[in-house]
Amino acid sequence: MTKSKRLVAFLVFPLLFLSGVIFVLFVGDIENSQNNRSGFAVNPTGRLTVDLQFGTINIETTDEDHINIAYTKKWKAKFRELRLKSGEWIKELPNDFEITTKSNDSDTQSDIRVEGKFKQWQEHWQDGLKWFTVDFHVTVPSQYNVTLKTASSGDIHVDNLMGTVSAEVLDGSLHLGEIQGEVWGKTDGSGDITLNGCQSRVNLTAAIGNIRAEMTTQPEHPWMLSTSESGEIEVALSTDIAVEIDAQTQGNISSDFSIQPHRYVKNRLKGKVNGGGPILKLRADVGEIRLRRK
User: Fold this and answer.
1) Which runs of E-coded beta strand occur in 145-288?
2) Is 196 helix (H, G, I), strand (E, B) or coil?
3) pLDDT tens for residues 78-133?
4) Choosing a second label site near 289 at 20 to 30 A (CA), which of 44, 83, 154, 245?
5) Are 79 and 25 in contact (CB under 8 A)?
């Protein structure tokens, strides 16, 4: 190799290495991911309880009398976003969020309980939580009951369940598919609530967000939907649904249906749709209430 070529190599190779480092620092990701799976044979009359301090919960159903629990804890960020404490977050934060699963001692468990919480105070990790996710995916028997709660930064999804649902989110939204058992749902922050149908009793409360619900089959029990502040309520009813309406808000109330007798006094509308049935009680603060034809 000539002297000039050695000089070029001496200059070019370090530059190439440096450019690679710069690319990683400004474009590349850093990630720590942990996955876990477990399964239980269960009695379909039992209940699954998931109580998370942080994370998203997804519930799906199966025809088998079996529960499958899968979760992922992930810490991921761009290098350019990191601070000096990032090394601590990367190594310790996913490990600090502890997940435990408990069941009763019988051969076929009725009740399963899952808890997820930080061993240290959550505030200890506050600056690193924007890069942290916890995702729960659980498959339960179609005839089963669930109690679900996530305290921050997560939604709850439940689809096509024949059992009862009790769900609460602090800083996220609540999405409910067709549910045949009783439904109780609550959002404590700005998240919305959606319900695609329920044949049993319904009680939904949104602190700040909106409620969107569909009444696809004739209800057998009362429904109660309420929002505060500027949250809106919209209920879509099939044309043959028979209910008694009691709606009240400081905002507007609109309906695609003929309500008889039509009584509207002091921002409150009361009357019957298709001759009446179980009560559909709607309460908003200043948000609009809409009854639309599905």
Assistant:
1) 145-150, 156-158, 165-169, 174-176, 183-187, 193-195, 202-206, 211-215, 223-227, 233-237, 243-248, 253-255, 260-264, 268-273, 279-283
2) coil
3) 655 555 455 666 778 888 999 999 987 565 568 999 999 998 877 777 777 888 89
4) 154
5) yes
**What DSSP state is assigned to residue 126?**
G
- 95: tokens are 């490990």
Q: Give the position of tokens 């409910």.
A: 176
- Residue burial 118-132, b: 16+ Cβ < 10 Å; e: rest: beeeeeebeebbebb
Residue with tokens 């190594």: 91
pLDDT digits (tens, 9 = 90+) for 198-245: 989 999 999 999 999 999 999 999 999 999 988 999 999 999 999 999
d(CA 97, CA 92): 9
- Round to whole Å and give the CA distance between 55 and 125: 14
Question: Does residue 33 have a pLDDT over 90?
Answer: no
Residue 127: helix, strand or coil by DSSP? helix
Cβ 93 vs Cβ 120: under 8 Å: no
CA nearest 214: which of 165, 173, 176?
Answer: 176
Tell me the sheet residues that pair with 293. Answer: 237
Residue 36 contacts by C-beta under 8 Å, 6 or more apart in sequence? 69, 70, 71, 99
Q: What is the rounded distance in angstroms from the CA atom of residue 67 to the CA atom of residue 74?
A: 23
Q: How far is Cα 89 from Cα 94, in angstroms, rounded to an integer?
A: 8
